[in-house]
Amino acid sequence: MRKNIVAGNWKMNNDLAETQELISHLKLQMVKEPTAKVYVAPSFVNLYNTFQSLKGTVVNVAAQNMHYAENGAYTGEVSAKMLKSIGVNTVILGHSERRALFNETDELLAKKVNAALENDMEIIFCFGEELKDRKSDKHFEVVKEQLENGLFHVEKDAWKNIVLAYEPVWAIGTGETASPEQAQEMHKYVRSLVTDKFGKDIAQDVSILYGGSVKPNNAAEIFEKEDVDGGLIGGASLKAIDFLNIVNSFS
Ligand code: PEP
């Protein structure tokens, strides 16, 4: 049975004091047995501190990115080995901001995917079309290409470590959300792609999250769709009460 998951992507927000404050609110207000597996992804500087503070709670900690190399002359980068050494076993890869602002290509992402899997890390793999793709009715094609080129080279066995996150770029940070029907349509399509390539069992087991302006007031109607298994949350994860309301949006 696939898991419900809600992951908060804090992006480049919150200094140390703000991070600690957010964590203390999360710890105070989080229910003991949420109906979803919960993650937060702080910036690299706050990763160790966040991991230590949330140890023993139901909130898991993920990195927002990593390099594919084990170590070496890659100024400013962080490796899987470094993340694992502080206890962080999950990484978000392929976020649209990394793709668009930092020129991350499918080929680069495939290398990062390999590095994460070699280090037995869990991957939250993001993909999604831009507005121009949707307007020209190319959204299915674009998503298929991102998955085929960045992820679908993995072995069947790797899928136990993979979570998918469909994030239409036009809905990220814009206040514009895909309708529950649009999300369901794409999630169903993505599951069919996984079925075709890796088989029904893997496709039925993989969690597919939706991301793009999910808020407490729209989470429930999106999460109740059959192929939507939770959300990757940006803006609304920065306020504990909003994030926790989203975590508690599963029926
Ligand atoms: C994101 O960046 O992954 C995201 C979904 O952001 P927001 O919720 O702010 O649209």
TrEMBL record:
PROSITE patterns: TIM_1 (PS00171), TIM_2 (PS51440). NCBIfam families: tim. This is Triosephosphate isomerase. InterPro entries: Aldolase_TIM, TIM_sf, TrioseP_Isoase_bac/euk, Triosephosphate_isomerase, Triosephosphate_isomerase_AS. It holds the Pfam family TIM. Belongs to the triosephosphate isomerase family. Its EC number is 5.3.1.1. GO terms for cellular component: cytosol. The active site is at residues 95, 167. Substrate binds at residues 9-11, 173, 213, 234-235.
